[in-house]
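Much of our argument rests on the idea that a fold can be written as discrete symbols. Part of our work consisted of pairing the sequence of a single chain with a tokenised description of its backbone. We regard such an encoding as a compact summary of how the chain folds. The amino acid sequence and the backbone structure tokens for this protein are reproduced below.
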Amino acid sequence: MGVEEMIAEGMYLVQNDPLHDLIVGFRCRLISSFDEIGADIGRRRRVKLGEVAVRKVLPVWESLFPTDRTACRALELANNLLAGTILPPIAEKETGRMWSHCDDLSWKHPEKQSVVMVGYGAIQVVREALSARHFGCGTVSSQSTDKDVDPYDHDTAFCAVIAYSGGAAWDKASDSQKRLEFWTWWLSHAVPIAVDNA
């Protein structure tokens, strides 16, 4: 199945889901399909897809943490990895520091968990740049939801949609219409950008 067909399938799924969520089983299939073309192209597409998603919600982060460059620094780190200007062990160490920083922010701002997800999402872009294949999908079935995924293995899109809609799909405070907007944008805009710019 080609990317266009998968985008159409995703649109159908998200429009017909009661919470307008795009389940992780489908996202894993779509993102993992990037790697079928070749490891380098797949990695570049995964990083670009993650970067575009983070940039969509970066204003949410900047409104709460205007002087904190963690999310931007993570995107720079991912692109430096692709360019070969930084070694993976250095990036891994920096990723650990950034993750701990986001954990601290979550603890200090418990009412702003959805905003902190922008930082976590940006860190996952670095993990995509470090990974030969899309991570976190080893135990995911076609019917899996994000509740079935280890928190460390959530993809960037999951983090970004939380930031955009104000919470996870199962969170009563989150906005299902905003979730529909995000996934529609992700499928129709972000995925084609990732495919075309790898």
